[in-house]
Amino acid sequence: MKTRFNSYDIICGVAELQRLVGYRVNQIYDIDNKTYLFRLHGGGASEKVTLLLESGTRFHTTGFEWPKNVAPSGFSMKLRKHLKNKRLEQISQLGGDRIIDFQFGTADAAYHVLLELYDRGNVILTDYEQTILYILRPHTEGESVRFAVREKYPMDRAKKENNELSEDSLRKIIESAKPSENLRRLLMPILDCGPAVIEHILIEHGLENHAVNVTADDGQDDNGKAPEEAPKGNKTKKKHKTRNQQINNAATKAFDMETDLPTLMKAITAAYDIIEIGRKRSCKGYIIQVKEEKPTDGEKVEHFYRNVEFHPYLFSQYKDQPFKEYESFMEAVDEFFSTQESQKIDMKTLQQEREALKKLSNVKKDHSKRLEELNKVQDIDKRKAELITCNQSLVDKAILAIQSAIASQLSWPDIQELVKEAQANGDVVASSIKQLKLEINHISLLLKDPYDCNSDDSENEADNEESMIIDIDLALSAWANARRYYDLKRSAAQKEQKTIDASQKALKSAERKTQQTLKEVRTISNIAKARKVFWFEKFYWFVSSENYLIIGGRDAQQNELIVKRYMRSKDIYVHADIQGASSVIIRNTTGGDIPPKTLLEAGTMAISYSVAWDAKVVTNAYWVNSDQVSKTAPTGEYLGTGSFMIRGKKNFLPSCHLIMGLSLLFKLEDSFVQRHQGERKIRSTEDEIDEHNAKQTEVTYAELDDISEVNDASEGALSEFPNTEVKVEHDTGRITIKSQLSSEVQEPETVEHQQETLENEEEVAIIEAGPSRKKTQTSRKRRDAKGRSDKTEIEKPQENSAEVEPTASNKPKRGQKGKLKKMKLKYKDQDEEERKIRMMILNSSGKDKIVASEDKDDEKSHTQKKIPNVDKTGESVPKNQIEIDENDDTPIGVDADLLDTLTGQPLEDDELLFAIPVVAPYQALQQYKFKVKLTPGTGKRGKAAKVAINMFSKDKACNNREKDLLKK
Fold first, then answer.
1. Secondary structure E strands in 730-777
2. Cβ-count burial of 630 within 10 angstroms (0-12 exposed, 13-18 middle, 19+ buried)?
3. Per-residue burial over 791-800, b = 16 or more CB atoms within 10 Å of its CB, e = otherwise
4. Which of 554, 708, 584 is nearest to 656 (CA)?
5. Are strands 912-921 and 442-447 parallel, antiparallel or unpaired?
6. Does residue 226 register a pLDDT over 80?
């Protein structure tokens, strides 16, 4: 099994990693004392790449999440100190040696990471003058070369690359070679391309199994004797070695200098061509596999493939073996080493499966053997009883004769002598007695069927074979002895029946235990395998109850990334009607309209991931199409990171409760996906929503153009609920709620006027990135530490819409009555509109300013001047709209296929690969097997998650496989 890079792997790996030149080092981690991870970022789309370096073994990019040490090692800290934020300027191989030089930075600020992939390997950090700053494995080579800190790394020590080899020099090398040396071994130090390339070119040119300087007596040993004439005192090891040499000599062909040398030169030229191909372009990757047979208790034979080698080229020696092809060599190497541990576990699993099935096979064999013995005993006892019955008179005479001798008080030896004398005289009864067992009161008689007796010799021999020696009890008669054997036969038959009954249960139990063992073994194997992290896991995310992927940004940078990179033309943008909320995107995989339930769940997510969660304030969310989101700010204003401009009409959603849920999604094996089809299907309005909810939905999502068509009943319903405006001032923590009661009678002319106004006017809103949750929590803790508590001023709705600022208690405190009287006298002439404008100007945020105008028509025209590009239909065409990346790495179909493999309702016999925790609105988790409700409070999120996982694992419905996944 191949475990490290060879020379040709290094050549192809260095060529493929040239795409990373120009990337910057983001962070460096260590997996163990030999393996290090370099997080790089760069490229046009700020691509992030992880480069893995292992001393003495490998280097490649990886897409797996490797377990990192909790505390970085000293070498990692040294690498971070010198290389962090440095640009990767060059990746090269030193000569033809297995040493790779990674250069970070330029000129005097350059640092080199030298990776040695031979012997025990090494990782060395040097400065621009090649002075060693840190070394993983200090050592010395001889007396002059010393590898240690502050020493200079000997760059000229690397092996020089040999690109030219003439025919004369090759002839001299062959002539000076050892006798019978293999041609492949001879070319290894000459060609710097590894053994796989050499074997490939020899096979392609018909020079495999050739040896140079072959002589006639190569098959003899040192004493001139042939291997079969060697002294008998040789050890077993030497005999095996001699036998192997004999086989190799039989398969080895002699290299002819005249005929084979030109062919060898062509093969060497082909090797140089392969090396040149590896240097100039990225190669595909190939993993060579071995087919292993899985043990099964049925007739069906199952196989699995074990990875044994990785190569950047499909060499001739591996074309007949099973292999997997990858788009790049780095991808193949990553897959090979990432699954290496799981391959070991698979082999261990295979061994355990074989042992379990062997135990089951032994139980079955023992069962069949026991039944066979019982059947044999029954046949023998029946035969003995039948022979006694047929020879009844002979048996009785023998019993009588021995009993008479015993009654005569003869000794046992005298009785034995008496029997022998009778046998000598030809007595028939004495001749049938073969043994006396007087100690147990038995005799042994040789009996045969008297009715099948014939006079022919051949028939007599057959009769002798059918005759049987039978023990006869002297205390019983012949009939009683026959009955005793019949009883033994019946007892054996009963035992056989009991054995059959008991063995069926035993076999079922053994099979059940075997299947359980196989299931547990496969479970352990699956848990140990690493998994790739999905692209959406870095964001807030969940899967709606109608199978739509919904993602949200964790901070301003992610909000920017989500809108610019991941929002597509058919997607929906959702945002809470409050400053500092997360930007939420509904990934529309179908291309049709998003169902209302999914929109409501996305709105709940947007509100929950905002300051409304900490403030425990219920507010509204709205959604717009992707083409309404723009990064172009109005004249004189600036949009920072995570801030966007919304142009056009906002579609407001109903108020949502601040209730989230924690649950688990399980990744299904591909063959089990079909069983879970339709778990998260789109619910139609006709099937799922009753008439009352349908009316309410129509009222909620009704466009302003249809207001005049709303019936009187809906108008009455709207008048019962006042329009409430919630304003949160994030700098001061003040929350203001303002309610305006709708008049009972509204004039139709006013509605028509509003319709005309809205047709000619377009809404514009700026979504500004507010303070993050962490900063808000930190500032709150700081205020609590100083002993100051936040006071919330709430403006209660009244008939005259007057402002009232209540305190913590109902009664005003000392000195406040006089202040209130003065305020009433001072602002008695101030109307509501003037008060509202003054309060907005005095707002401490200093960002939201409204310029009042007495003439509303002037204000309308002023607004229309600021919003250009309005077509005849009233739909806006914004300038510099955000470009939606149509060439996204995640196609539309990928989301749907991936989401189908995730289920929240695993069945008992499903094969689950891994579990993913998910936080989603609680209404989206109604059908999930494991779920807990999350509401705003003072608890810690980490502690709440641990408690929830502990609850899931102790659930009675949680099986062993799910418990193992929860532990992971």
1. 734-740, 764-767
2. buried
3. eebebeeeee
4. 584
5. unpaired
6. no
pLDDT of 424 over the 60 cut: yes
Residue 117 corresponds to which amino acid?
L
Q: For the residues 687-699, what does the mean pLDDT come to?
A: 42
Q: Is pLDDT at 541 greater than 50 in this prediction? A: yes
Lay out the sheet containing 111-116: strands in order across.
88-93, 99-104, 111-116, 122-126, 132-135
808 has a pLDDT exceeding 80: no
Cα R_g (the chain), whole angstroms = 46
Asked whether residue 686 carries a pLDDT value surpassing 60, the answer given is no
Q: How far apart are CA 540 and CA 764, in angstroms?
A: 27
Of all helices (H) and strands (E), which one includes residue 858?
A: helix 856-866
Which of 803, 784, 412, 387 lies closest to 614, judged by CA? 784
The alpha-helical segments, DSSP class H, found in 568-723 are 596-608, 611-615, 685-688, 691-701, 712-720
Q: What is the average per-residue pLDDT within 822-832?
A: 76
With H, G, I as helix, E, B as strand and everything else as coil, classify residue 625: strand
**Token pair listed for 443:** 């005799």
Average pLDDT over every residue of 806-818: 56
Residues in the chain, total:
968
What pTM, to 2 d.p., does this model score? 0.50
Q: What's the farthest any 2 CA atoms get from each other in the chain? A: 156
Output the six-digit token pair for 915. Answer: 């579990």
What integer is the mean pLDDT of 295-310? 72
Q: Look at 911 and 149; give whichever has higher pLDDT.
A: 149
Range in 279-293, 826-840, 872-886, 917-931 the model is least confident about:
872-886
Contact 415, 402 (CB under 8 A): yes
Low-confidence winner among 497-506, 840-849, 928-937 (lowest mean pLDDT): 840-849
Token reading at 909: 């016999």
- pLDDT of amino acid 297: 53
Distance, in Å, from the CA atom of 131 to the CA atom of 111, rounded to the nearest integer, reads 10
DSSP code for 387: H
111 neighbors 86 (Cβ within 8 angstroms)? yes
Whole-angstrom distance, CA of residue 590 vs CA of residue 950: 38
How far lies 520's CA from each of 133, 193, 488, 914, 963, in Å? 49, 45, 46, 15, 12
Q: Is residue 545's pLDDT more than 80? A: yes
Stated as kind and residue range, the H or E segment containing 35 is strand 35-42
What residues pair up with 765 in beta bridges, in sequence order? 646
Tell me the C-alpha distance between 315 and 526, whole Å: 32
Report d(CA 376, CA 844) in Å as an integer: 103
Kindly write down the DSSP assignment for every residue of 535-564, as one continuous string: GGGGSEEEE-TTS-EEEE-SSHHHHHHIII
CA gap 181, 191 in Å, rounded:
16
| Calpha distance 842→834 (Å, rounded) | 12
From 230-244, 666-680, 802-816, 847-861, the region with the lowest mean pLDDT: 847-861
Give the three-class secondary structure for 851. Answer: coil
873: exposed, middle or buried (Cβ count in 10 Å: 0-12, 13-18, 19+): exposed
Segment 131-157 shows an average pLDDT of: 90
CA distance 730 to 722: 25
Please state, in angstroms and rounded to a whole number, the distance separating the CA atoms of residues 683 and 427: 103
SS3 683: coil
pLDDT of residue 42 exceeding 60: yes
